C-alpha cells in the first residue's frame, strides 16, 4: 500500500470525509494474511488457527498524550509500538503471535494520512511478529486511542508464568534496558541527537522469538519489561513469593545511554532499572539451565526473608521502580 500517496496532510481527506468503511478499506485492501488466519477481516469476526487447542490472549491500549505524541512520533511509529507492546506480552508467555485485532478511536477531523500511517505501522509490526491484522473496530472519539488484542499459540508448551521463579534461580534479561526512557527524556528535554535512544522510544523492537527461546531453555518465569525492570521483576517476585537481587555491575548500560545520561545529568541506572516501554524480556532460569544466546545473567532469586521484593546489590532500590498508570509519572 502506498502511504506516500497523500503525503501532504493539507491535501489528505479526513476520516469523516472518507467514512468508516473507506478507512477500513484503506487499511485492509491488498494486505496478505499470515498462515495463522483462516478468515480475515470482513465478516462479523475472524477465524484463527489454534493448532495448540489453547489460545493465548492479551490486550493493551495507547492513548494520545499519555503514551505517545504525534509531534514526537510518526503514525507509523505509533502503529508499530501499539502492536509491539501487545506482541511482547504474547512472547512473554513463551508463545508465538498468531493474530492482532486493532480497535481505533479518533476525531472525525483526523487526516487519513494519520490512519493510513497507523495501519502501515500495525501491519509492519504484525508481520515482524509473524502474524497479521485479522480485524478491528473504528469509532469516533475525542482523542486518538488505540486498543490492540493479540492472540498467540503455545505450540504444545506450558505457558511461562510470572509465578514460577524459585530460590536459587538466576535472573537474565534480553534486549536494551532504559533506552526507551532515555529517548523519552531526550524528547522531553527538546535535545537533538541520541538517535538510537529516540528511535527505541518511538518504536520498541521486541525480539519476539526470545520468548519461545526462553521457554525452550526451561525459563521458570518470564515477563516483558513494560513498566520498568524493578517494577516488572517485582510482579514476578510477588507472584512467585520470592525475592530478586540484581547485580548492577552485570547490567549492560552501553555507551549510547551513558552519553545521554551525562548530557542530561541523569543517573543511567535510574533509566536501566526504572525505565519502561523497552519491551525487553526478563526471565528466571534454573541455575543449571543453558541460558539462550544473547541473554545476560543480571541477578539471582532467593527465598524472601520478609515480604517478596527486588533489591539492587543487596539493597532496596531507592529510585522509581517504574511506570504506574494513575500517579501521572512513575512508582
Ligand atoms: N480492566 C481489566 N480487567 C481485567 N484484567 C485486567 C484489566 N486490566 C489489566 N488486567 C490484567 O492485569 C494483568 C496486569 O496488567 P498489565 O500490568 O497491563 O500487564 P502488562 O504490563 O503485561 O501489559 C494482566 O493479566 C491484565 O490482563
Ligand atoms: C507522551 C508520553 N509521555 C510519557 C510516556 C511514558 N510512558 C507512557 S506508558 C509507559 C509505561 C507502560 O505503559 P502501560 O500503559 O502501563 O503499559 P503496559 O504495562 O500495560 O504494557 C511509559 C513509561 C510516553 N510513552 N509518552
Ligand atoms: Mg497491559
Ligand atoms: Mg507484560
Ligand atoms: Mg503497565
Automatic annotation (TrEMBL):
Residue ranges annotated as transmembrane are none
- Enzyme category, top tier: transferase
The residues that the entry says bind Mg(2+) 3 are 44, 89, 224
* Binding-site residues for Mg(2+) 4, renumbered to this chain: 44, 58, 89
Detail which positions bind Mg(2+) 2: 60, 89
What residues does ATP bind to? 136-137, 162, 226
In this chain, substrate is annotated as bound at 67, 277, 323
The PurM-like C-terminal domain covers: 166-250
- The catalytic activity of this protein is classed by the Enzyme Commission as 2.7.4.16
Q: Which domain of life is it from?
A: Bacteria
Reaction(s) the record says it catalyses: thiamine phosphate + ATP = thiamine diphosphate + ADP
Q: Where does Mg(2+) 5 bind?
A: 227
Q: In which pathway does it act?
A: Cofactor biosynthesis; thiamine diphosphate biosynthesis; thiamine diphosphate from thiamine phosphate: step 1/1
Q: Which UniProt keywords apply?
A: ATP-binding, Kinase, Magnesium, Metal-binding, Nucleotide-binding, Thiamine biosynthesis, Transferase
What's one GO MF term for it? Answer: thiamine-phosphate kinase activity
Stretches assigned to the PurM-like N-terminal domain = 42-152
Which residues does the record give as Mg(2+) 1 binding sites?
59-60, 137
Please name the Pfam families in this protein's record: AIRS, AIRS_C
What CDD domains does its record include? Answer: ThiL
General remark: Reaction mechanism of ThiL seems to utilize a direct, inline transfer of the gamma-phosphate of ATP to TMP rather than a phosphorylated enzyme intermediate.
Q: Which PANTHER family match?
A: THIAMINE-MONOPHOSPHATE KINASE (PTHR30270)
The protein's job, in short, is: Catalyzes the ATP-dependent phosphorylation of thiamine-monophosphate (TMP) to form thiamine-pyrophosphate (TPP), the active form of vitamin B1.
The protein depicted here goes by the name: Thiamine-monophosphate kinase
Amino acid at each position: 500500500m502506498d502511504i506516500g500517496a497523500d503525503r501532504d496532510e493539507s491535501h489528505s481527506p479526513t476520516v469523516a470525509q472518507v467514512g468508516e468503511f473507506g478507512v477500513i478499506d484503506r487499511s485492509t485492501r491488498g494486505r496478505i494474511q499470515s498462515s495463522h488466519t483462516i478468515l480475515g477481516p470482513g465478516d462479523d469476526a475472524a477465524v484463527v488457527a489454534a493448532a495448540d487447542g489453547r489460545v493465548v490472549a492479551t490486550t493493551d491500549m495507547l492513548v494520545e498524550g499519555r503514551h505517545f505524541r504525534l509531534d514526537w512520533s510518526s503514525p507509523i511509529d505509533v502503529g508499530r509500538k501499539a502492536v509491539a507492546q501487545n506482541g511482547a506480552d504474547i512472547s512473554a508467555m513463551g508463545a508465538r503471535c498468531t493474530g492482532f485485532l486493532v480497535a481505533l478511536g479518533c476525531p472525525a477531523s483526523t487526516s487519513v494520512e494519520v490512519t493510513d500511517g497507523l495501519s502501515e505501522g500495525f501491519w509492519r509490526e504484525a508481520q515482524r511478529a509473524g502474524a497479521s491484522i485479522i480485524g478491528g473496530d473504528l469509532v469516533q472519539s475525542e482523542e486518538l486511542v488505540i486498543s490492540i488484542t493479540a492472540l498467540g499459540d503455545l505450540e504444545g508448551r506450558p505457558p511461562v508464568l510470572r509465578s514460577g521463579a524459585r530460590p536459587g534461580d538466576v535472573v537474565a534479561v534480553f534486549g536494551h534496558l532504559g533506552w526507551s526512557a532515555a529517548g523519552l527524556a531526550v524528547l522531553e528535554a527538546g535535545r537533538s541527537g541520541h538517535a538510537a535512544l529516540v528511535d527505541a522510544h518511538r518504536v520498541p523492537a521486541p525480539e519476539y522469538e526470545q520468548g519461545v527461546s526462553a521457554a525452550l531453555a526451561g525459563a521458570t518465569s518470564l515477563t516483558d519489561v513494560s513498566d520498568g525492570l524493578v517494577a516488572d521483576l517485582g510482579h514476578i517476585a510477588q507472584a512467585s513469593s520470592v525475592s530478586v537481587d540484581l547485580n548492577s555491575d552485570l547490567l549492560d548500560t552501553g555507551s549510547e545511554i551513558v552519553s545521554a545520561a551525562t548530557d542530561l545529568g541523569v543517573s543511567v541506572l535510574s533509566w536501566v532499572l526504572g525505565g519502561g516501554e523497552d519491551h525487553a524480556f526478563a526471565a528466571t532460569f534454573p541455575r543449571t539451565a543453558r541460558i539462550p544466546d544473547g541473554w545476560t545473567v543480571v541477578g539471582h532469586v532467593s527465598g524472601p526473608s520478609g515480604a517478596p521484593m527486588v533489591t539492587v546489590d543487596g539493597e532496596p532500590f531507592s529510585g522509581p521502580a517504574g511506570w504506574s498508570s494513575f500517579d501521572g509519572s512513575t512508582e
